[in-house]
Specification:
Blueprint: E1 17-18, H1 21-35, E2 39-46, E3 52-59, E4 88-94, E5 99-106, H2 130-141, H3 146-157, H4 167-181, H5 185-200, E6 205-210, E7 216-222, H6 224-233, E8 236-242, E9 252-258, E10 264-271, H7 277-290, E11 298-301, H8 305-314, E12 319-322, H9 324-335, H10 345-354, H11 359-372, H12 379-386, H13 393-396, H14 408-420, H15 427-454, H16 465-473, H17 476-489, E13 492-499, E14 503-510, E15 517-522, E16 528-530, H18 534-538, H19 543-552, H20 589-609, H21 613-662, H22 669-677, E17 683-685, H23 686-690, H24 715-721, E18 728-730, H25 733-736, E19 748-750
Parallel strand pairs: 6-19, 8-11, 11-12
Antiparallel strand pairs: 1-5, 2-3, 3-4, 4-5, 6-7, 7-10, 8-9, 9-10, 13-14, 14-15, 15-16, 17-18
Helix pairs in contact: 2-3, 7-8, 10-11, 14-15, 16-17, 17-19, 20-21
Length: 760
């Protein structure tokens, strides 16, 4: 019997038959809702085949509360709800018809029944449906609180009574979801998450470092979008660590830069065990490995000594600059006792850091400051002076920094991350919410790209060819900076000019005073050399050079003075990952496009169909049929690649058998597969991968000091081997061919090489 076909006033009767146990429960629960009591699933009996032979459904107030038998009474006790109600319905399976029949029935209750206004609050009437659960998961991923999510669904349903569950039910559902996501423990779930990301996009990179006890120490990851961003904007990088983003209080290190709109872009991130030299070595080494060995020109950090030591070893060719914000803060910390009313100490120090462009002037003011305030023996200030090439403007003016002098981008990102993350988040939640921050930054770039194409640049002098050329070339924010420099050039005057055979030297100064600049113009290649070095440091020409170009008749920006990273079309071009494959930021972009086309139409149909019960039933039937057809088409499309792969595997086996006849020493099929016969998108199990040493691209001396050889039994591998078919990792098998067995592994668990390989 289909309970949906029962009359609204139908009551249970002895001998009533049902096709299944579920039909019997739905009917009795529907009757309970009409009457005003909640149903409790009581005992059941099953045969040896697991088929339910009998079951009893009773009122939730059946039985009595058990008395507390201990000597000490608890401070809080729950109010009793049991009244010993005997209402019940017992069903029994008849073997001849394989239908369930009502064998015993009691309809009378010994308590007051609920009224219809709050009957939806009864436990048996509350359930989080599949659609509601999916919506709740989306709300949680979007950062909505439990109350906000429940209120939103209540508003959509037309009132809390129409939702079908309470806030506590939603809380239990989300908790169960989190427990289910941690089925393999935090370590296994994290690697499973990485594997899912890799399957979605093969360019996803991750690496994990283990200690001698098989405990995870450092975690590194970068998605395809991060690899693309680094390819175009990885010339200047800032790196900083922050705490209080996860429940283990592990420091989070993020590599950050900015794009052509001077907005934050995230290159990759690492959860670190500690902030030691060895940990930083591993992080920086893995960073280079993920970025195909491409070093940044400049990296800015705070004054952490461990970080500086690791950078000098891993990236010796990269210029290491110090964050001026951290230096000023440390200046206040170490020299705060020297501050007096109307003291010029902070102003002199600030001038040395930001203003002076000549080394002689810097040294002269520094010596005067030290002598005036009796700081000759201050160790911190003396140490800062020894590394002045990392922070003083006069020392850094020829270094390419894209105009960055601090890790303020990292500090801003850390603040945004802490707005989305909580201390009680597990690792899987951490990655999910961290991706929200990344998506938010990428969306900001899309907004800037839209406005760049939508709004015309505000050109001050529309008849000036150079400004028109700059407005067509540069991004809006860089064009504003260039236009300001061009405005400065109109206030410049030529003091003198010295001609030579090939070079012309100009002395340029503002009409109202200021420092005198020297600009040398080359007649052959139309290039300029100037003392302020603004182009070398920030990537745009200074007003002095623009004045000279205007004087000699050059009316557009020479191509060699246009930094591509500041142009509108900086992202034109391809990006390739470590395997030489083109990186695609979003392989599912077509899926998103089709979803945007389908979703409004489906919502419109659902809205119209909900107006009446008849149209709602028709819509449910049509959608059910449509869902079945879609699933059928998807299953057919998924079976075809599997069949093609199976045929390919058989062909490879045949090839190996042919080789084996002519080469007695040929390898087995499994070894042949691992040695490079398959494409780089194929998977090998973690068990096989864990028996290999560290990749050659990360030297052994960069490993954590706690790393040692592993035993046959280790915690992480045992967890992963339980689901070795589901949790796997990728190996760069194309690059592996012809190498030693300890090379070529890209997505790996980093462990020290064993003395003797463990047998599989």
């Amino acid at each position: 019997m289909d309970c949906s076909k029962l009359a609204e006033n139908r009551t249970p009767e002895l001998g009533m038959k049902f096709n299944s146990e579920e039909d019997a429960y739905k009917f009795y629960n529907k009757y309970a809702f009409k009457m005003g009591f909640s149903v409790c699933k009581d005992y059941l009996n099953k045969d040896k085949d697991g088929v339910t032979t009998s079951r009893r459904y009773s009122c939730c107030k059946e039985g009595v509360k058990r008395k507390y038998e201990c000597d000490v009474m608890p401070k809080r006790t729950r109010a009793p709800t049991k009244t010993g109600c005997g209402a019940k319905m017992v069903i029994v399976l008849f073997r001849g018809t394989m239908k369930y029949c009502v064998h015993d029935l009691v309809l009378e209750h010994n308590h007051e029944l609920h009224i219809a206004q709050y009957a939806h609050m009864m436990p048996s009437q509350r359930k989080v449906s599949v659609a509601q659960g999916f919506q709740a998961e989306i709300s949680e991923d979007a950062g909505l609180s439990l109350k906000q999510s429940h209120d939103l669904m209540g508003t959509e349903a037309g009132g809390m009574g129409n939702v079908g569950y309470t806030r506590d039910d939603l809380k239990r559902y989300l908790r169960t979801r989190r427990e289910r996501s941690l089925k393999y423990g935090e370590a296994g779930s994290m690697l499973n998450y990485f594997q899912e990301q890799t399957l979605e996009n093969p360019s996803f990179f991750h690496a994990v470092q283990l200690d001698c006890e098989e405990q995870i120490t450092n975690i590194f990851w970068a998605d395809a979008g991060m690899l693309i961003d680094y390819n175009f904007f990885g010339d200047v990088v800032t790196f900083d660590t922050t705490y209080k983003t996860n429940k283990e209080y592990r420091p989070l290190g993020v590599f950050v830069g900015f794009n052509q709109h001077r907005q934050i872009v995230i290159f990759d991130a690492a959860l670190m065990y500690d902030e030691t030299i060895d940990s930083f070595k591993w992080v920086f080494g893995t960073f280079l490995e993920a970025m195909c060995g491409k070093h940044p020109n400049t990296i800015l950090t705070d004054q952490d000594h461990a970080m500086a030591a690791a950078l000098s070893i891993v990236m010796p060719e990269t210029f290491h600059g110090l964050c001026t914000f951290h230096i000023r803060r440390n200046f206040m910390k170490h020299l705060g006792n020297h501050y007096k009313e109307n003291s010029d100490l902070p102003y002199m120090f600030g001038a040395c850091m930001y203003e002076f462009e000549e080394v002689e002037q810097f040294n002269r003011v520094w010596e005067a400051m030290v002598k005036k305030h009796n700081l000759e023996n201050n160790e911190w200030l003396s140490g800062l002076y020894r590394i002045r090439d990392k922070w003083a403007r006069c020392m850094m003016k020829e270094r390419w920094t894209a105009g960055m002098r601090s890790t303020q981008l990292s500090e801003s990102l850390n603040a945004a991350i802490k707005n989305h993350l909580k201390l009680d988040h597990d690792l899987v939640q951490f990655f999910r919410h961290f991706n929200r921050v990344v998506d938010e930054k990428r969306h900001n770039e899309l907004i800037a790209e839209y406005e760049m194409r939508q709004k015309l640049p505000m050109v001050g002098l529309r008849q000036t060819p150079m400004l028109v050329h700059a407005s067509e070339t540069y991004s809006p924010i860089v064009f504003v900076a260039f236009q300001n420099e061009y405005g400065e050039s109109t206030a410049m005057v030529m003091l003198r000019q010295q001609d030579a055979a090939m070079f012309v030297e100009f002395a340029v100064m503002r009409y109202d005073g200021g420092p005198e600049r020297t600009v040398v113009f080359n007649r052959n290649d139309l290039s300029v050399r100037y003392s302020c070095k603004k182009y070398e440091n920030e990537g745009i020409l200074c007003g002095h050079a623009l004045k000279v170009f205007d004087t000699v008749g050059i009316k557009i920006i020479p191509p060699e003075y246009i930094k591509r990273r500041w142009t509108k079309r900086v992202r034109a071009g391809d990006c390739f990952d470590r395997r030489g494959q083109e990186v695609v930021a979003d392989p599912k972009v077509m899926i998103s496009t089709r979803y945007r086309e389908l979703a409004p139409a489906m919502i419109k149909i659902a809205t119209r169909a909900a107006m009446s019960e008849d149209t709602s039933k028709v819509a449910i039937t049509v959608i059910s049929d449509l869902s079945k057809r879609v699933e059928l088409l998807l299953s057919e499309s998924e079976e075809q690649p599997l069949q093609n792969q199976k045929n390919l595997n058989m062909e490879e086996r045949d090839k190996i058998e042919i080789v084996s006849e002519s080469e007695p020493t040929s390898v087995s099929f499994e070894e042949y597969m691992f040695m490079g016969c398959y494409s780089s998108t194929d998977s090998v199990s973690v068990h096989r991968l864990a028996n290999q040493g560290p990749p050659a691209s990360v030297p052994t001396e960069w490993m954590h000091p706690r790393i040692s050889i592993f035993s046959k039994h280790n915690s992480v591998r045992d967890v992963l081997m339980e689901e070795r078919g589901a949790i796997s990792t990728h190996c760069d098998v194309d690059a592996y061919h012809g190498r030693n067995n300890t090379q070529g592994l890209q997505l790996r668990v980093d462990v020290a090489s064993p003395e003797n390989e463990v047998d599989e």
